[in-house]
């Protein structure tokens, strides 16, 4: 049937974009911002005819694009690059080079050319043969987002890279600010772990429910700690097994949806500092705490040890002092509302 490549034609996308923005302006409308590029390392479908970092000067194109738009529409926000980085591909240094080029162009032309940085996080915990990583490795892997620990994930083809990036997310956030010399909007188009693309890219059914819950909750906490501005997640799957925390195509709730809703409803406000007396590597417990107002607090506790129950003490000064036993591989929450404390959780 063909791939569509044969129908591709050259187009002046910069000029076309300006025409479109002008037409909106003439109708009294405006576009507040948009993202340049889409999975810009992925040549799937169109091969060498799809502009990627491998076969074109994508950053040069972006700079020309941003200059043209910002000159006529200075209030439109430019976000780059909807890129596919992933720790498994060892690409962080390459994107820092891109940002340095954009900064040099800003200095040369005296224009702000980037307002935000967005990227995709696509990975799996299964090799190309469909073998799932050990549960402990799956729940431990989120640590590699922000500190130098081993990376246990595969790329979306089920392959590993011997030079995987560790602590890449915090590196990307910090270096983006340092290179540009100002605060940017930083967001993630997040894909929770699925299976290799050739098997069904967004299918989560092969993972244990608790691995999914812990991974999901831990990533939400890490993103909050790093101060990311927004996170977009794929919402709909073909069936409930595809997206355990979301919806299927018919609007039915995923198996882990209550955890998703609890985090959405209560994990907001001011993030509190959490101190611990035992290092994470000695007691695989993560704690995140947020204050919604002067009387309401939300504390999320994850026991990421898949084989050991853990007893710990929670001390929220002038609010809560309690000792709690955490089942192995479990999610536990405390909602503190005035003098009332509600404890809930799930684990096995």
Describe this structure in words.
The protein has helices at 13-26, 58-72, 92-109, 135-140, 168-180, 197-200, 209-226, 257-266; strands spanning 33-36, 77-84, 116-121, 185-190, 230-233, 236-237, 247-248, 270-271, 285-291, 296-303, 310-316, 320-326, 330-337, 340-347. It is an alpha/beta fold and 348 residues long. The protein has 2 domains: 5-234, TIM Barrel, CATH 3.20.20.80; 285-347, no CATH class. The strands form 4 sheets. It has a 5-stranded parallel sheet, with helices on one face. The protein has a 5-stranded antiparallel sheet with strand order 8-9-10-13-14, covered by helices on one side. Helix 1 packs parallel to helix 2 and helix 3 (92-109) packs parallel to helix 5 (168-180). The longest helix is centred in the N-terminal third of the chain and has 18 residues, at 92-109. The chain is globular. It starts with 12 loop residues before the first helix and ends with a strand. The mean pLDDT is 86.
Q: Give the biggest beta sheet.
A: 5 strands, parallel
User: How many domains, as an integer?
Assistant: 2
Query: Roughly what fraction of the amino acids lie in strands?
Result: 15-25%
Strand runs, count: 14
Indicate the percent of residues in helices. 25-40%
Radius of gyration: 22 Å
Pick out the low-confidence regions.
none
At the fourth CATH level, what is the homologous superfamily of the largest domain? Glycosidases
CATH architecture of the largest domain: Alpha-Beta Barrel
Q: Give the overall pLDDT as a whole number.
A: 86
Coarse structural class:
alpha/beta
Q: Give me the number of helical elements.
A: 8
How are helices and strands ordered from N to C?
HEHEHEHHEHHEEEHEEEEEEE
User: What is the fold-level CATH name, i.e. the topology of the largest domain?
Assistant: TIM Barrel
Gap from first CA to last CA: 49 Å
